[in-house]
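Problem: given the chain below (416 residues), write out its structure.
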Amino acid sequence: MTDPQPRARPGLPFLLSARGVQCDPPGDWRTWLFMGGRGSGKTRAGAEWVRRLALFGGARRIALVGPTFSDVREVMIEGVSGLRAIVRPGELPPYYQASRHRLVWPNGAAAYAFSAEDPDGLRGPQFDAAWCDEAAAWRNGRDVWDMLQMTLRLGTNPRAMVTTTPKPVQLIRQLVKDPSVAITRSSTRANAQHLSPAFLSHVERTYANTKLGRQELDGELLDAPQNVLWTRALIDRVTMGAVPGPLSDVIIAVDPPAGTGLKADACGIVAVGLRRMPGAPDTACVLDDATVRGLPPHEWASRVVSAASRTGASRIIAEANQGGEMIRSILYNAGCRHPVTLHHARLSKHARAMPVGALYEQGRVFHIGGFPDLEEEMMAFGTAAMKGSPDRVDALVWAVTALLLDDQGEPSIRRL
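Solution.
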């Protein structure tokens, strides 16, 4: 157990081949909180803990709680590290009764699935133990946890295990401060022997030294609001007085408004340049924020054309969710002679912005001079202070994405 990354030893019990953090912590704990990065072995540890209780620990009734019923079945039960996947050779697997949301082992022990979307679903039943997965993503975290505690009343020592990638939500903060909770932690890299080298290389290269990487890869519970991507300190750190050398390309990104008038959304217009240095990662330089509000289409299109001419842009990219091909026509009718590429947003604004926020933390995006309105919107983005649509941020995200992340357009985030 002292080996932080022992070799997998097929045929041996899990406890003899697992990493120490995946095994029951010592002490008289009521709750075991396993916080880890993506792919750090949390699910396998939770499934093995439940299996031992069901087959050898005398537990007859176990609760399985996930963000949704689908998560419980697809990850905790049927997943590659789930309860049905860890059956030993010659061992009969537990049977899942979908109509009753129940998993039954040959010895009669049963695990019951519950969705964190419905706290009242935990009223009435009682259990010897509970496995709670991705509790930081529970929609009604505190309510579900409180209801679950009332159900842990069977046997001599009912316990719960919580496996989650940490987020600074109320429930996780509460568990971390509770002295009756035993805590183990693991990073993604600690479980490298079970992960694709290409995956590990990609996520470490993309998110190393970023807030998202510390949370999602290192399993670190951060002490900042979870949706904040930019702070004043971060923006000040990347602000420069002049462009540090020649630029390889400049593009204008446009987030067109859906209507006109002072009450309509603004037309986000942001110019960003690309700087390439031999032997170093590409960087982006924000050159101009020409965002306007309340103008009719032909006038905001003229502002786009002027910004492109002023900054020496080679092309224009525009979000086409509002207007489609009409956006291209509006720009051409306003005298645009630049190539225009249209992109359709599929992910949420925050999901699209997260990889760009990570690039700022890595020091790969710079502001050339100050952009007060853009920067105020960046700091408010993802918080209660954000009023209306973040049109400047949307344009910024499209531009940086096109230059540094994906020539095909929108950044992609998949569940790992």
